[in-house]
Amino acid sequence: MALSPSTPIVVKDFVSELGTFIQIYSDGTVKRPLQSPFVAPMLDDPNTNTGLSSKDIVISHNPPISARLYLPRITNQPHHKIPILVYFHGGAFIIESAFSQLYHNYFKAFVPQANTIVVSVEYRLAPEHPLPTCYHDCWNALQWVSSHYSTKNNPPNNADPWLVHHGDFNRVFIGGDSAGANIAHNIALRAGSQPLPCDVKILGAILSHPSFFSSHSIGSEPVEEDQHGELLNLVYPSAPGGYDNPVFNPLASVAPSLAGLGCSKMIVCVAGKDGFKDKGILYYESVIKSGWQGKIQLHHDIDEGHVYYLFNPGSENAKKFHKRLVSFIQE
After folding, report:
1. Which of 178, 208, 211, 214 is catalytic?
2. Residue 274 annotated as catalytic
3. Of 137, 160, 244, 274, which residue is the catalytic one?
4. What is the mean pLDDT of residues 7-22?
């Protein structure tokens, strides 16, 4: 319909933007130009040649938390239990989704190899929902998963049959990439001080290219104070201590001791061309020095960049990376 000469034209002005990641307008509109398209789940996906199934479920209506579940083909021994990985996607706390093509393609490659149920959590994003919202959403999702362990006496709301019939609650893992790895760290710390339903324990944590920050750069990190400051204002504007808040900086003087991590083993993955590499390595070394009683591994892809395996899951290095994570889960 054509506009008449008297029809007012409303011009939306930028209020804030962070490169091409996110654009916020004066009317409150938020756009995410780099957001990967959403794709539908599929039962018995014919494109994987493995019988991989996926579906979307609602964990909670209030607060709104959902997830995409992945189940590898169950062939022989239908009552055999397999590990559960509760996964938190990356995206700087402001973009991406458990339902995006980027993560769906990744899990299509990973899940059949790992022979693991994956619960990929859809948590609320900043700036509409500033931190610590995402940490609470992901903890609630982990609680929901854990509550399936005793379905006869205290079944969870919206109990899922894949978890009930195939999930091994003695082999529960958490993991994530980039901001999702940051979330996984914070969830592991919380699990060290707060019990999960049915006394479920986290066996292992996967921290892949974790996004940790601090008020000072270390090692070969680039100095991008303006951009980092803008990100902080978007994701957690009221953060006490700024980037030395413990949710960002696990080594801050006020951060809880890493000895309290609530899992039995951990793998920290870094990439040589990733600006977060040095903080990831320092985190790994600090966990060892903390007195934590678990077992920790470091995986270093020297010639790769930040979360490279998401963008090219079929590359040779990505395949090697998958095998390392599969070994970590299955050992």
Report:
1. 178
2. yes
3. 274
4. 57
